[in-house]
């Protein structure tokens, strides 16, 4: 009896040791690329996704610790239920009730984004978060101070240990963890996607709207991501109170005056108000704007031919745009406020 | 069992010896920040050749891609070579780079600033970590050099001047290469700030915060600060 017991003990402790070892290692996460989508732009080899890294990023995303006075989190301007944007405000507001100069962008399918912000000034997802953290109108904080606040928190010491295998908290890791959360925000389960997968069918109205979309909108809002990732001038007059010259501010190239990034249209039903300065409250206003354009040499060639959509056609187009709503994404519990 | 323990001890001792050896033997690139003949100090008044009375508050810059060429034409390139030099951090003025050899160094080259590849690679670590305050937020890219201070010539708020030199996209790629030739192996790199302010009139030029032609001009002027001083053996 003595011998087997001893062996059992040795075997048991070995199993326990191995289990402890696997528990310590972060669990790899794999991004599922939806069928028919292009290869992601983000280089995952420099920031391998893990469950623990994702959860750390999620905790940071919802934590106002990133702001100077602990009042503003990323989620303050990027709400899940509205496609991770700031609904109902033309211009997004931040710390001390200060108002910025643009409407916050949506956050989804960011692994495919080549540039960030309305003017594309940011070249990599990792460094995007530096903007809201340091902007005096948003979080008005420094990354160095964020790191020192996190280093004092036992909760974050444990989260960083779990995510990176050691408890060292650095600026790089804060940013990479935020990226991990944001990279997982994939919206690919709208009715439109289901129709393409033959799991659903469009109504006649939606089908007609899709046809109109393909002729009039898809050259910039390329399927399946609904953006060309390019910068375009779309005929909006300059608002003199903001004087936002868009891409030209970044490149100092006068040819890029008033060029803004083509945003995705996924979940557009809920991401109002529209345009870089949120000047349109309703989708019908957006379509009316494009319908009124044409015969203007300052416009890109895609917009030079007038659309001439009838009242009925405009309604059909809106019906199609509503099929880009992905409720599974907007209410996915994995992306919501982390309750402990 | 006992012999294993013994071997372990020997290994540890051996390893430590090796580490100590390496530390002692490494060649240290020393930088000396100056204003003409004086050692540069923060918040001390200097008068430039353009007759501006000025004080330096912040002086930080990147040195990268350090390469040594020896008299026998062999070379040494430091890997992952990015160093943030900061007047407030005296340790940063000593860069350990390579094991010393008997070979004479004939040429030393490095860049002032950070290359475009690192500027598009997201969040980096060490001296490139964005917590160092040398990465732009609204427009991605590293600030290669930051010089801030005060001068009565500046009709700005609190009489400040601020130069943030950077830019990684052509035609405004602001990185600059420096080539120095030491006479002997007992040398240090001199960074004489007076050489920069010689060519600047602070009343007219006191704020550069974005990449562009002005930053390119200042990046060119900044190269004039770098020189080498070899002590006679």
Q: Radius of gyration of chain A in whole Å, from Cα?
A: 23 Å
Number of DSSP E strands of chain A: 2
SSE-based structural type of chain A: mainly alpha
Order of helices and strands of chain B: HEEEEEEEEHEEEEHEHE
Instruction: Give the helix tally of chain B.
Output: 4
SSE string of chain A, helices as H and strands as E: HHHHHHHHHHEHEHHHH
How helix-rich are the residues of chain B, as a percent range? 10-25%
Largest sheet of chain B: 9 strands, mixed
Low-confidence regions of chain B: 17-23
Strand content of chain A: under 5%
Compute the separation of the termini of chain B in Å.
54 Å
Counting H and I runs of at least 4 residues, what is the number of helices of chain A? 15
- What is the oligomeric state here? heterodimer
Could you tell me how far the N terminus lies from the C terminus of chain A, measured between alpha carbons in angstroms? Answer: 46 Å
Note the overall shape of chain A: globular
Q: Which stretches of chain A are low in confidence, meaning pLDDT under 50 for 5 or more residues running?
A: none
What is the residue-averaged pLDDT of chain B? 90
Shape annotation of chain B: globular
Rg of Cα set of chain B: 21 Å
Main β-sheet, spatial strand arrangement of chain A: 1-2
Count of individual beta strands of chain B: 14
